[in-house]
Fold this protein.
Amino acid sequence: MRTPMKVLLTGANGFVARHMIEALRARGDATIGVDLAPTTANAPDRYAKCDLSNAAAVRELLATERPDAIVHLAAVSSVGHSWEIPAETFTSNTTLFLNLVEAVRALDLKTRILSVGSSEEYGIVPAVEQPISENHPVAPANPYAVSRVAQEMLSLLYAKSLGLDIVLTRSFNQFGPGQCENFVIASFVKQLLDGKARGETTVKMSTGDLSIVRDFIDVRDAVAAYLTLLDRGVSGEIYNVCSGTGHALSEVLATAAELVGVKTEVSVDPARIRPTDNPQIIGDNAKLRALGWSPRHTLKSSLADIIK
């Protein structure tokens, strides 16, 4: 029998946090949500409004709550947006994390920290070198990726040099029910459903580059991976959180259109094209599978849930 934990989640109002809170509650863990808004719709057991860029406020919060674990989800997480606000992206994704680990160190807490990073850290990797394992060197190709590499370096520094209990992820593209339409798959589904609601049998779609291949992982599978890492991950180690399968955006769109019951007419919007983008990125999840985790959702089943 495992002992229930008290888990603090930063970015508690976000897409991933919603599913994480549900999963933690289902297994009997207590949740403390932390975010900037006065209230939250994701309903953790307790909620605290806290600006994580304020080091004193973070220390006060952790001194009060003394959580068994922290799942750090708060971040500027859009690659496209990071090109528009590079300084804010870098500052947010490093300072917030640094304030957390400094508070844990200063208070001498025995808290396990899940430092959530990104597959974008790998940069542009030739197809012959994929699927990508955790041993592949990082080579960030956008401001968001640079900020995540910096967070990862801080994580390794505090784990290996200062003895904090930190498990790291490089998480691939997460999608699923409830995601904001600023993200590609949610945008596809929203456009398709709006077109069908207007009575269209062929929906005109505005997209970016549909030849891009991504390793999409259902958010519920990602959350299951995070729980596995909280329980059995090795401190100071990095784990790919991915499905292990690549899908072109054209395939994703075609599958979603089939499920909605419409055809599509596609036009490429130059505003949706990023200055640099990985043509393909597929991850190797063998290290995570060795801990007893495996994905349970397929692209088609996930899309069906999003549409529903």
